[in-house]
Here is the input.
Amino acid sequence: MKPILVTLLLSLTALIGVIPITIAAPPSGGYIVVFHDHIDNPAATANEISRQVGGNIGFIYQHALKGFSITVPPQAVAAIERNPKVKYVATDDLRYISAQIPPTGIQRIFADTNTSIDIDSNDDYRVDVDVAVLDTGIDFEHPDLNVVGGVNCATGGPFNTTCGSGGDDDHYHGTHVAGTIAALDNDIGVVGVAPGARLWSVKVLNSRGSGYASWIVAGIDWIAANGNIEVANMSLGGPGFNQAEYDAIQGAVDAGVAFVVAAGNDGDDANNYSPAAFDNVLTVSALADFDGAPGGFGSQTCRPDQDDTLADFSNWGSAVDIAAPGVCIRSTYPLEQGEYGTISGTSMASPHVAGALALLASSNPPSNAADVSILYGVVVGAGNFDWTDDSDDATQEPLLDVSNLFPNLVQVDQASNQAPTAEFTHSIDSDDVSGLTVNFTDVSDDSDGYIESWFWNFGDGNSSTIQNPSYSYKEYGTYSVTLTVTDDGGVTGTYSQNIPVDDPNAGGGSGYGIDLTVIPRKVRGTMYADLVWTATDDGKGIDIYRDGSPLIENVVDNGEYTDANLGKGGGTFTYHVCNAGSIGNSDCSDTVTVEF
Here is the structure.
């Protein structure tokens, strides 16, 4: 299976040369802890382990797999592994975009001649399918893309237990990938393989094109929780093998999501890289094609290479399932970067195949791993061998050919329905002296219609379909609560939040329910401390203390704050937070110590 480093797999070639990519160093002491499948409350178990080893929790996973990410000293890992609830511990490896390189690719795979796709420069029909792009994000405002929703899992530091809202592209890679998959057939710019497919931005890489395995697993976990997504593209990767990434993908595949990944741009055996080496995905190498036609007669354009051969940067090997155009591919760019751009890489090849899978999935929606395997087989089986394999392996992979794939199209007035935005607030019921009853208030919104139904998962195995439920838990702990809303067009939106349910009569410094977590991190040597606590609904502000002295007073209680005034170097710091104007410790958090 493939390496663990997450990278955008493109060969970023501009007319003036190659654009260098900055790769951040992996976090010190970052790990992904995976639980056995029978664990029914990952959030509570994560909190239990964190208290035992003194670590700082990052993401909590409960859909693609069960577990969490954590930052702890390396010597604490053995204690975590001995916990009978833990299946294994994986390192939180760095992932990044691999260096990249119009759409002649659409012509080369015969998408423009397939009358079933109906590419005619008229945006009257769109492919009825949902595709997730795990990348740097997508430009939500691009007029050539049908972006219906998104999420941001690229936190910049592991202090959010769930992915946040958003997913806009602050790089360009993800927007380019999205255009190859599904740019609109609208007589402007470019057109994608599956024109008008509904795109979901799953941002797992930052503005530098890099990220961590924990972010990617969180993105996959989010996809697995959203049952309307059929295809996911991962134009990223790195060297090594990460079991958590593999298992997360398998969990989503089991739920009926087909995955396409880039083979990598190292001119090496793809078996040495992840997720390219995984056997539960379609791995794609890059073809050099300059004229959109077979025969090898095209003259090089944006970069030197030989027409109709394996791109000189592309990885190869037995892990590769299929080839697709990946050299000098023109696609969408963020509006502020010119709307359209031409780049190269296996990152550009992979979305061609994702688009092909989207065509198939629109008429044959997968619901389990067996269905996904059938889709993989059909796409690979439809390929042709009308190209020259000059790679270092002995096996020629088929070249993507969509001339005989038949999608399900919907009229634009049906296809343009935007996904609703799910969201809720909560409060502990003041009439319940036990503190076990939580009142949930739906604050979801649908910009182009109305919300028709609600489904609450309370995180303990129970659920409700009431819009604003009150729910009584059986025991104290932290519960990952998920709200899924469905609009009048049948499109869903999902929102998750970890809800602490504490004993109001318990002694100690957390009697007011303020549960503080502090995550230390460094950026270019500068120390930052990310504070996250359970925000209250009492209208009071929060006082934040560092080393026993006030750091900031009466700040808005939004549940998080970053101390960016620590300077460079190292040191040990203590933090606690209190309701504004508190006297004593009755309405303060416990004191948390962090060390850089």
Remarks:
- The CA atoms of residues 525 and 569 lie 6 Å apart.
- Confidence is low (pLDDT under 50) at residues 1-7, 10-28, 507-512.
- The domain at 30-91 is CATH 3.30.70.80 (Alpha-Beta Plaits).
